């Protein structure tokens, strides 16, 4: 199951969560609060298709997700920021791209 990705030009980071072994039926994700609502829905759908697997979803921010997955304390690290060069060694998959727009009132100059 892939919940998120990392690509230096796409500003989103993570690794795939392999289906846990029969001994450990847990999958842990931490990271971006921006990505978290999507991950929670994906985890719910994954849990329906894989009863007995417990998905634990935590926020904490992009740097927490990258650090945790790189350190092996979570299975999936989510980030909504550009990855550093040392983080590009992680297995990465693109989940989504986002767009930021600056909108101002017509009375502002």
Major sheet summary line: 3 strands, parallel
- In what order do the strands lie side by side in the largest sheet? 2-1-3
Uncertain stretches: 1-17
What is the rounded distance between the termini? 47 Å
The CATH class assignment is Alpha Beta
Strand content is: 5-15%
User: Radius of gyration over alpha carbons?
Assistant: 16 Å
CATH architecture: 3-Layer(aba) Sandwich
Helix run count: 2
Question: Would you kindly provide a written description of the structure presented here, covering whatever features stand out?
Answer:
There is one protein chain. It contains two helices and three strands, in the order E-H-E-H-E. It has 109 residues and is α/β, with parallel strands linked by helices. It has one domain: Periplasmic binding protein-like II (D-Maltodextrin-Binding Protein, domain 2). A three-stranded parallel β-sheet has the order 2-1-3, with helices on both faces. The longest helix has 14 residues, at 36-49.
């Amino acid at each position: 199951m892939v919940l998120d990705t990392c690509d230096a030009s796409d500003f989103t980071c993570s690794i795939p969560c392999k289906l846990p072994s029969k001994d450990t039926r847990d999958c842990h994700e931490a990271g971006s609060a921006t990505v978290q609502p999507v991950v929670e829905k994906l985890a719910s759908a994954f849990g329906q298709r894989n009863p007995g697997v417990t998905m634990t979803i935590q926020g904490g921010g992009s740097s927490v997700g990258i650090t945790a997955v790189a350190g092996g304390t979570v299975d999936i690290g989510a980030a909504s920021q550009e990855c550093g060069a040392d983080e590009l060694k992680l297995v990465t998959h693109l989940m989504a791209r986002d767009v930021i727009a600056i909108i101002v009132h017509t009375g502002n100059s």
